Amino acid sequence: MRCTYLEQLLNKNTVRQIGRDVRQTSDCKVTDADLQDYFKTLSTLLADPQYLQHDPSAIIACTRLSDLQNDRMSFEELGKLLKEVNQTLEEAKKTGKRFSEMAENTLSKHLQKLDATNQLGLKRLKKKTTVGEQRLHSKTKVGEHRLERKTQFGAQRIVGLKRLKKKTTVGEQRLHSKTKVGEHRLERKTQFGAQRIESRTQYGEQRIEEKTNDADQCIDSKVHDGTQRIEISVQHGIERMQQAANKTAQADERDEADFRRRLVEHYNDTSSNVPLSVLDQSLDKRITDIYATPKMHRFDKASDGKRVKKEQVLTYKELFYTNDTKSNRRVYVQGEPGSGKSTFAAKLVHDWCDENQPSTAVPNKNASFDDVLIIQNFPFIFFLSLGESRGQTEVTHMIKKQIIDTMYSEEKRDVMYTLLLKIIETEICLVIRDGLDEWVAPDGSNLAEPSMAGFSKDKCVVLTTSRPWKLADERIKNSRIDILVEIEGISDSYTFSKRVLRCILDKSKDLKTTAREIRSFIEKRRLTWLSNSPMLYTLVICTWVDTMEEEEHLNGSSLCALYTTFLESLCKKANDTIGFFNDLNPPHVKCFSRTSYLRPIIQNVDVISKAAFNLLFSPEKEKSIVFNDQELSNYLTPSEQEFALKAGLISKRKTKRALNSSISFIHKSMQEFLAAYHIAHNARLIDDVISAYLGCHSNAYLDISQVFIFLCGLSVSAANTLSGIIHEHDSKIIDARGVPLLSLEQDDFQSIIEAGYREAVSNDQTGILLRLSHFNIGGDNLIDIYNIWRENKSNVLSLEIHVYDETDRAIHSSATHSEPTSQVEFDLSSCPNLKYLVLFGSGIQIQDSSSSVSSTRPVCIVLKSANPVQCADPQPVLPCIKHIAFYRIRCSSTWLRSLLSTLLTLDHYVTYQLTKCYITSCKEDAVRWADTETGATLLSFKDTLSLSNDYVSDSLGLWEALHGLNIKSLSLSLKVKYADSMSKSLLSLTHLDTLNLKVINNGPGLWEALCGLNIKSLNLSFGYSCLSVYYSDSMSQSLSSLTQLDTLSIELNILCLWEALHGLNIKSLSLSGMFLHLNVKYADSMSQSLASLTQLDTLSIELNGQSPGLWEALRGLNIKSLNLSVQYGCFTVEHADSIAQSLSSLKQLETLSIYFWTYIDIKLPQSLKHLNSYCMTLLPYKLRELVDTLSACTQTIESNLDFCCASLDDTTLTFKRIPPEEYIVVKKELEMLKNVEVKRFQILDRTRQTNVYDDDDTASDWSVRGIGGVHDDTEDDNVNDVAYKNFVRGMSNTIINRISMRLLITPSSNS
Fold first, then answer.
1. By C-alpha distance, which of 1029, 1108, 1125, 1122 is closest to 1072?
2. Which of 395, 456, 624, 995 has the lowest CB atom count within 10 Å?
3. For the sheet containing 483-490, what is the strand order?
4. How high is the pLDDT of residue 1051?
């Protein structure tokens, strides 16, 4: 027994010694030899046969020790071990915490017990004291009663009383003494109890403190030991974790490499081979065998938002980089259907997958897109078909569905999806989104394109292919497009033909000969545009090869004919029974009449076409192109579906769902052709279905444009109806958006109508009446658009023609006409609704209807209207025209005069711009002048014409065009070069009443041109310093010759030619100018001139500078009306006396209109009857002063007052708002006056567009706030007042309140 105990003790000491040896090292590390020795010792102890061999904990410990020794312990087990260590530490902490809580509870209980004991002692002491007091009080009472009785009974005995008193005194003393003794004893006992309680409390606190300290030391010791053990375990764990992390990183690299390898294999299976023809999807070839260089151009974003076509793109570097440094992260490739967008994307993926490409390959400068190293720099490329992901919004989900779910089994998909999320955050990726136009966002989503959430913006490059109309969506901002390129088919169609033929042509046929025959056929039929669509081009080649042995190859350039051939070829695969349409069984459409295989299966074609229509025009757009079995079963029976699948009209692909498939037509254009065929023999669908479809979707006509083009070739009557509905919907959208008539949207609509017209002509359709209102005509579409215009003359709203070439006759030919046309003629008089007319280019001839000279230019413009010289009442033409623009146009002065004569009869404004035009003379005896460019802007309204060309001199042709026009008011702003011609033209204007002339230059010829005119009103405006003193005589003679002149208005900068005004018989004179001011030295000259105007009745002066001599010059005039407009700083208090003296000298003055910034008190003449005062700032007390001044007059005065509710800071020249309510108080005071009648009091308000008070900020229109009790039905005549106009024009936008008043003031004596 003794040996056994020593052995156990030895085992325990050995284990403890090992623990101490490890803990006492500085870094908790041991040598390999010591570690092996520790392992051996611990294993021996744990395997003790007597005590530990069968112990479960020892067995587990021994197993773990063996795993740790042989490095077999997994990362999870090590983590579990560390977790157990951590739990041990947590339990130790919890034990210490529980011990502390127990100590606190014990101390709290003892304190509570001590407090209770203390309270009990106090209660007992208090109780005894109370009892003693009660007993003492009781005995005192008894003694008093007894004493009283004895006193009563012994009142007669004096001795007895004394003895009783003595005994009573002795009793009180004894009782008091006993009470004192009791109190002392009670106090001593209380003190003794308190001391014992205090002693016991101190003893308890000492014991608690000792136990607490012991517990803290124990806890600290255990925590220290546990911490050391944890640190050792954590250190080992970190080392194991680092090893595991390295293994994990290596595993991730292997997973990524495996993922990349699988991607390459996936793309090699799905993308590196492309179908040779859409007629047979199974006949596919390596993309390198048939791929041809695309014709691709870059588009730039102009400042106005337009996209401008730039240079050709030939390398991947040009596509993905700008200026060799900036990476294009968002690349957009647009193109029309079948242009090769998807093939280009597939070729890009193939170049990335091509592992045989040497890493040091040098790009071939003669090849296109051979710099494949640019592509191979992307570690990962994800190629997605958006048409297969309709309704999905996240690109990551699309990758999982289209790529991961295809490459991996179901149990591995989630793991690989997690790897994908890591790759897109850390690796540089290229995401190819093919077919954005085929993707539809789910209901309720406003996304224009799928979300790239999860991708790192600085590591992800996105290449998106789409049709152009999709990228015109306003939600796709220009700022989000780093580069936009457009694929326009193939660059070398002949090489492409040879590539395709090499894959399908029988070896017995000569490849070059066949390629040349196909090229000749395409050129002869004008099908070279097919190079823009490799898909259609391939179909033509394949159909050509398939029918080489037949007598007749493809015929015509009609899309309907081509697609009829495609349809027949496909249907023949399902049923090769021959059958023909005839008179007894005519076809629904003309292009089916020559087929051999459609008649027996026409019912199948009809139901498939109906399905194509219903699906294409489905309210749910996401189901229009790609649909499932259930949706297709609504239109096709199982047997009909089987026929469509066998024929290849539809294709079915299995999806992730077992019960459904992804179904679509072989190509969207085939679905559109079949839908158009269904509409052709069910025209009611246009009103029943298509009209509603157009109303539900914005720009829906772009979606159905190809359907419309097919319909034009199949049934032009139905196409005519559809074009009218599309035109109506398009016009409503444009009106709602406020889009200008000449816009890109109109160009899109015209392109559709133009393509439809060509298709109708190619199919020998008659009665083509396609609706179009906006025409944009160029050399490439001249004939076709002209033919459309001829059937829409009454519908034309805008006409824009661009023909620059005068001699090239190639532009006269049309794709729909085999023979060229020499010339087309546009008769504008046949367009009664025309609003916009724009003519550009020297290839346009303006033809006089009266001229016998034939035009030699491609386009001839005719305006058949009567000559105003020969016909006094010409019939109006172009009654709706609003804007005309000519650029580099040659026309005769006679034709221009006829046009202007027409415009002068219209009751709305018309703008007419001439830019670099040539105006020739048609007079037989006229001296031919050299051609000079004419530039001018004309504005007409009824019999008023305004002409300006501030930067270009006048021309002889322009003056001849004005000759003899019925003009009452003419405004001219120009540099006068041909004064003689100007004079003749002005003299010929017999109805001219008002002439406004702004002269850029000055000379004697100008004044000679004005001599002898019968005008009544003349307004002269001169440029700075252009009125020279040297021409004062010419000016004087010219003005004197105007015998009918009664109104003269002169606007100039330096007024120094007063002599020229001397003695005129004018009744009204207006003087103004930007820098007009009057010095004292000119006062006498001005005074003499004004005094000589004996008929002068009205004088208006607008001052913009200090004019101290003005008031002297006005003295003594016999005028009845004076209108003064004084700008800021020109009218100060210093002038008050001069003004008062001048005004008082105007004995005949009845009306005074004055506009000034700040009110100044002035004395008014006694003859004054009407005062119109306009003030920019009028304080309320100043308004009272003004009314007081008017009340002091001895005559009745009617006054119009308009002023702003604001004050002016002279330092900053800013306005401060005054509440209008302050003026209402003044108004009420005025109403109390007997001699003042307030006939009008209106507050006018307006709002500002922003809260920032910027003078350039715009403000709304004025609104009148009604004030009760004041009614004024009198119409204002101050709207034509010059001072009022200047007041309104000079008002700052910062002013938002003003007041308009009308007062009638009578003399106080009369009241």
1. 1125
2. 456
3. 307-312, 294-301, 483-490, 330-334, 460-466, 429-434, 380-385
4. 76
